[in-house]
Amino acid sequence: MKRIPLLLSLTCLLLSCLSCQHNELDYKKMLRVKTGPEPNLSFTRYEDVLFHLDTTQFQQELLAIQNDFLPFLEGDLSQPLAIQYLKDFATDPFALQLYQKVKQVYPKLDGVEKTVRSVYQHFLYYYPGTPLPNKVYTCVSGIQPENPAVMIKNNALVISLDWYLDKDEVYDQIGMPQYLSERTSPAHLAKDLGELLYTHFIPDGQKKANLLEEMVDAGRKDFFIEALCPDLPDQVLLGYSPQQLEWAESNEGNLWADMVGNQMLYSNGYELYRMFLADGPFTNEYSHDAPARLGEFLGLHIVRSYMSHQEATLQELMEDCDLQSIFQNSWFKPKK
Fold first, then answer.
1. pTM
2. In the 3-class helix/strand/coil scheme, how is the chain assigned residue by residue?
3. Is the pLDDT of residue 17 over 70?
4. In what order do the strands lie in the sheet with 156-160?
5. Percent of the chain scored above 90 by pLDDT?
6. Per residue in 134-168, pLDDT tens?
7. Does 30 have pLDDT greater than 90?
8. What is the pLDDT of residue 23?
9. Where are the domains of the chain?
């Protein structure tokens, strides 16, 4: 007789686990089908034009194309310094090398177009009628940190394809840290575009009182990106290597216990922020195998749990100013 309650408990636990897994699969499937209208987009390759201009008549050539490429040529092209700067870039051996690599990886823009259209359609499902740039330009930027890989400029979407050469050795040549060069695969374009739309259209003037609120807010941003890019694996979404993601998932319970046990969640300060939310190659306080931004990793799981337990839309999640309430109503339980 004593074995019956135990059997019932085990059965309920198994059914509960299967139900959670089923709900998670259903939820991901639901995100995939939430698409808005097909956007009317035009795609233009600025790099193909720039690197084929006649340098003996460079100023005249630039003036002839200026109106078609204002995101890149909005300055005063009567200024010799501006002309020289552009000419130096167009004839620079490194820039030309990048252009050749871009043409090898992206001989056509089919994959880029598919990515942009998909992210746009998911965004327009949640925010219908929002005016998104319908002109899309690709370019070679020289992999300059001051030039983001994806940006909105002059009401156009600009994508620097040399940021997405899939871990090419060129990133080592320029001294890019490995944890950043891991994020140069074509798949990261969707993530970067989703993050751009988040920063461009979702206001963030909310002050966070403690580490927990910072974590929930970071997880909320990742969830927004996931809603726009539901096929992204967590490795790309979080910017981790496969080994780093494995470490985070294997140590989630211990990590949470450490943060709770040492009363970190409701504390604040630069050191806590640096330890759990600043980007970098690893979290030294735990292990060289531990990725950075472990607070963001936990925050994403908290928000996922919240959205699986509450009947909230993406807009309601993003507009909710009570980050503490999101945590309390998430029923978050880390993996053991």
1. 0.90
2. CCHHHHHHHHHHHHHHHHHHHHHHHHHHHHHHHCCCCCCCCEEEEHHHHHCCCCHHHHHHHHHHHHHHCHHHHCCCCCCHHHHHHHHHHHHCHHHHHHHHHHHHHCCCCHHHHHHHHHHHHHHHHHCCCCCCCCEEEEECCCCCCCCCCEEEECCEEEEEHHHCCCCCCHHHHCCCCHHHHCCCCCCHHHHHHHHHHHHHHCCCCCCCCCHHHHHHHHHHHHHHHHHHCCCCCHHHHHCCCHHHHHHHHHCHHHHHHHHHHCCCCCCCCHHHHHHHCCCCCCECCCECCCCCCHHHHHHHHHHHHHHHHCCCCHHHHHHCCCHHHHHHCCCCCCCC
3. no
4. 42-45, 135-139, 156-160, 150-153
5. 84
6. 999 999 999 988 889 999 999 999 999 999 999 99
7. no
8. 52
9. 42-201, 211-328
Query: Which whole number is the average pLDDT over 242-249?
Result: 97
Average pLDDT over residues 280-291: 96
Other CB atoms closer than 10 Å to residue 120's CB: what's the count? 26
Q: Give the separation between CA 78 and CA 335, rounded to whole angstroms.
A: 62
